[in-house]
Amino acid sequence: MEFLPISWRLQGKVALLAGGGEVALRKGRLLHRSGAVVNVVAPQVCDELRAIVAQSGGACIDRAFASTDLDGAALVICATDDRSTNADIASQAQQRGLPVNVVDDPSLGDFIFPAIVDRSPVLISISSSGASPVLARKLRAQLESSLPARWGRLADLMARFRQPLKEKLDNIGARRLFWEQTLDSPVVEKVLAGKDSEAEAMLAAAIESADAASLSRGEVYLVGAGPGDPDLLTFRALRLLQKADVVLYDRLVGKGIVDLARRDAELVYVGKARDKHALPQDNINELLVHYAKQGKKVCRLKGGDPFIFGRGGEEIDLIVAEGIDFQVVPGITAASGCASYAGIPLTHRDHAQSVRFVTGHRKDGSVDLDWEHLVGEHETVVFYMGLVGLREICSQLIAHGRAGDTPIALVSRGTTNLQEVITGTLNQLPDDIEGREIHAPTLIIVGSVVSLHPKFNWFKP
Hints:
By secondary structure, the chain is of the alpha/beta class. It has helices spanning 22-33, 47-56, 83-95, 133-146, 151-160, 162-168, 172-182, 186-192, 196-208, 212-215, 235-243, 255-258, 281-293, 312-321, 334-341, 390-399, 429-432, 453-456, and strands spanning 14-18, 37-41, 60-61, 75-78, 100-102, 115-119, 122-126, 219-224, 246-249, 266-269, 272-273, 276-277, 297-302, 325-329, 354-359, 379-384, 407-412, 420-425, 442-446. Strand 4 (75-78), helix 3 (83-95) and strand 5 form a beta-alpha-beta unit. The two termini are 22 Å apart.
């Protein structure tokens, strides 16, 4: 993150704007809307900008910039059509410790102006950190078309009821949950439909009946985070993740997904690597109960799907025994996600009529599987967590009747920008990767569908 987005109160503060043309006018309009006193210094100033300056209570200085123009300013905007002039003004302002924006040249300044969606008091800013203002404007246009104009009225309504709710509920967590429930209630539709009085009556009644005990009841969300790409999260997964007070996650959950949690949420790493557990499974189960009994909403993020080799059933056992409310959100399992991103259809009329998911190692670390039922010529077999046992997997499949030239794929860090797909055959792949550094998590796909990878491979990170 190159720039820190902040909301800056400028009412009554002096903003010095160097430049009097069209570019300066755009900044002047924005400064005036924020309540700033706008001073403009330029040999020539357009009429509309002069009017804005007068309305803001500022002054037009009809000459070239002088260092004394910085006196009393809270911030400086350089919007002349000369880069050297902008650079000189910026340098002098920075020597005084004044924040500076240089229009169309972010490298010379301290801050930039984002594209803004204004639903006052709700403001949404979009910035490309100066890399592509056109992209920021495009995103703004999309948000403008999708956000109702009356969102600001909803924010005003909620602001009026903040103090009554605080008097009713002294627990901040209960108040936050109340507002979350309100935003999922008919109150919102009443406001958006222009029925403010009805919305106000409904909100007042909801506050009157609000119960701290029920709002403070803990709950566990067992959420499938998918195989890696944050775009593969479900809407429900994202909503519960952003609702959680505590988030427990492991090494199979990418940073991009963890970053979607609320900024004030407590993040607890419970990562497990093969034979190297940060926390034993029993301790993870107990942690879920521990936080939930404190009245917190706890999100347990699981790579892939929690009920497919995710030990989700083990974690739910204790939660059920303790009488704690819970929800389970399925995720895109690694087999489906990685195969899709590798261009390998798990079933295909000409190659495989069924697919089987198995785990590549058991609790004791062995690879003890029902091999006789894994060698069907027209079936795809997907091995989770099988990298360490790859050689044994290949040899056992061959020993039980699978042809040595059967195609096999090893997918490393699937669906992410670091994805690597290594293909070969059962009798060659273990030797091909000998000595190579292969990064977990990995997935192994066996079957003739793998031969379609070169043709169907669309994802090229």
